[in-house]
From TrEMBL:
It is a single-pass membrane protein. It comes from Fictibacillus terranigra. It is found in: Cell membrane. The chain crosses the membrane at residues 12-32. This is Flagellar protein FliL. It holds the Pfam family FliL. Belongs to the FliL family. Controls the rotational direction of flagella during chemotaxis. The keyword tRNA processing does not apply. It comes from the Bacteria. The gene is fliL. Keywords: Cell membrane, Cell projection, Chemotaxis, Cilium, Flagellar rotation, Flagellum, Membrane, Transmembrane, Transmembrane helix.
Length: 147
């Protein structure tokens, strides 16, 4: 009779261990084979995709806060074609944002990678606020001359 009691205690433990292994196996399968990899999720778009999703600003020449002058141009990448179409219609607002941001900056603040990254991030955030059909993925500085 004692053996029957011992066997009945072992079955639930065995069942729980088996269930845990099945759950871990299923989770492992999902993680390794079903989830998109970081490289797929962050893959750079092709040149054709970029062409369909980017808008180029006109060349802007304006003065900076320290009376220096800047000539600058950007290419703005959107997340979908509707956002691109809307952005093209709002380019005058984008140019206004660019001039407004630059007017408060000094030439030293735009030197080096950190300065350009800061400006691109600011423009990304402010231009995204304008859009109703999507958002800005990235702002590229394509031309910059400070005098």
């Amino acid at each position: 009779m004692e053996q029957e009691v011992k066997k009945s205690k072992g079955k639930p433990i065995l069942f729980i261990m088996l269930a845990v292994l099945v759950i871990l196996g299923g989770t492992g399968y999902y993680v390794f084979f079903q989830m998109p990899s970081k490289t797929e999720a962050n893959a750079e778009p092709s040149a054709e995709e970029l062409e369909k999703l980017t808008v180029e600003t006109e060349e802007i020449t304006t003065n900076l806060a320290d009376q220096s002058f800047i000539k600058i141009k950007f290419r703005i990448e959107t997340d979908n074609e509707d956002a691109k179409a809307e952005l093209e219609k709002r380019l005058f607002q984008v140019n206004n944002i660019i001039i407004y941001e630059l007017s408060g900056m000094k030439a030293g603040g735009l030197q080096g990678q950190k300065g350009i990254n800061r400006l691109e991030d600011t423009l990304n955030h402010k231009v995204t606020k304008l859009l109703q059909e999507g958002k800005v993925k990235r702002v590229y500085t394509t031309e910059k001359i400070i005098q």
